[in-house]
Specification:
The strands form four sheets. Strands 5-6-9-12-14-13 form a six-stranded mixed sheet. The chain is α/β, with parallel strands linked by helices.
Length: about 260
C-alpha cells in the first residue's frame, strides 16, 4: 500500500492534480486556500483585491509581529474598497475551492487547515473525497485518525478553535496507527519556523496522545520551514510532510 500525503496546498491546483500519481490514496492535511503568499506577494486573494504594494506592507507588519497595526491597516483597506468583506472573501475562496477540489484524485481523505472555511467544503467535495475531522478510517489494515484546524493565535485565521475543543477531537480518535493533523504536536523543534523566525502554535493534546497511544506515525504540516522536519517522540515518527505550495511534491508512506 502506498499513500501520498500533502499539506499547505495554498492554491497549488496544478501540483495537486498530479499528487496522487503512483499512490493508492491521497491524504490532504489542509490549508487549501491562498490568501497571501509570503514569498510571492503578487499571489493570493489579498493582492488580487488590494495590490502588491499593500501586500508588501501587510507582510512586513505581520513578519514584525505588529499584528494590531496589520489589522488596522487591513481595516482601512477594506473601508476604502467599499465592498462587503465576507462576500468578497467567500467569492474568492469559492473560486479556489472549485479548482482545488476538482484536482483531488480518487480516493482522497482530507481534513481542514487553519486558513480553510469548513462550511464550504461539503459543496465542493466530490464522491471520491472523504472529509474527516475528529474521525478515523482504515486503509489496508492501518487506522488513520484525522484532526483538522488550528489553535487560536493573534493572526485570527478562519478555522482556529479553543484548546479544549481541539483536545476533544484528539481524544475522540482513541488509538490509531497514523495520527494526521494540520498543526504539529507541541515540540519546539517541530513548531519553530526558521524563515519567519517564530514559533507557530502546536498542540499539547496531540503531544499527549502521541506519548499515551504511541502511533507509528504522526503526520502534519502548517510550519512551512521547520527547524526539524522529522523526529521521534518515543516510538512515534513525527513528520512534517512539507510545504506543498512551494514544492509540489507529496510525502509518501508505504507498508
Amino acid at each position: 500500500m502506498r499513500v501520498h500525503v500533502v499539506s499547505d496546498v495554498h492554491g497549488n491546483a496544478e501540483g495537486l492534480a498530479t499528487a496522487g500519481e503512483g499512490a493508492d490514496a491521497l491524504i490532504c492535511l489542509g490549508d487549501l486556500v491562498l490568501f497571501l503568499d509570503y514569498h510571492d506577494h503578487a499571489r493570493g486573494i489579498f493582492p488580487d483585491l488590494f495590490g502588491v504594494e499593500n501586500a508588501d506592507r501587510i507582510v512586513a507588519l505581520r513578519t514584525a509581529r505588529r499584528f494590531e497595526e496589520a489589522r488596522e491597516f487591513g481595516r482601512r483597506l477594506w473601508a476604502e474598497l467599499d465592498v462587503d468583506r465576507e462576500t468578497a472573501i467567500e467569492s474568492a475562496v469559492r473560486r479556489q475551492y472549485a479548482a482545488l477540489f476538482a484536482a483531488f484524485p480518487t480516493p482522497t481523505y482530507a481534513t481542514y487547515g487553519n486558513v480553510d472555511i469548513p462550511a464550504l467544503w461539503h459543496e465542493y467535495a466530490g464522491p471520491g473525497t472523504t472529509v474527516l475531522d475528529g474521525q478515523r478510517i482504515e486503509l489496508d489494515g492501518r487506522v488513520f485518525g484525522f484532526v483538522g484546524g488550528g489553535l487560536r493565535t493573534p493572526m485570527r485565521t478562519p478555522y482556529e478553535i479553543s484548546d479544549e475543543e481541539y483536545a476533544a477531537k484528539v481524544e475522540a480518535l482513541g488509538e490509531v496507527d497514523v495520527l494526521c493533523s494540520h498543526i504539529p504536536p507541541e515540540v519546539p523543534e517541530l513548531t519553530y519556523d526558521t524563515v519567519a523566525r517564530r514559533f507557530e502554535r502546536g498542540s499539547a493534546a496531540l503531544l499527549a496522545a502521541i506519548r499515551r497511544t504511541k502511533p507509528r506515525y504522526a503526520l502534519f504540516g502548517h510550519v512551512h520551514q521547520p527547524l526539524a522536519r522529522r523526529m521521534r517522540v518515543g516510538p512515534t515518527e513525527c513528520v512534517n510532510v512539507g510545504h506543498f505550495a512551494a514544492t509540489g511534491r507529496p510525502w509518501a508512506l508505504e507498508w
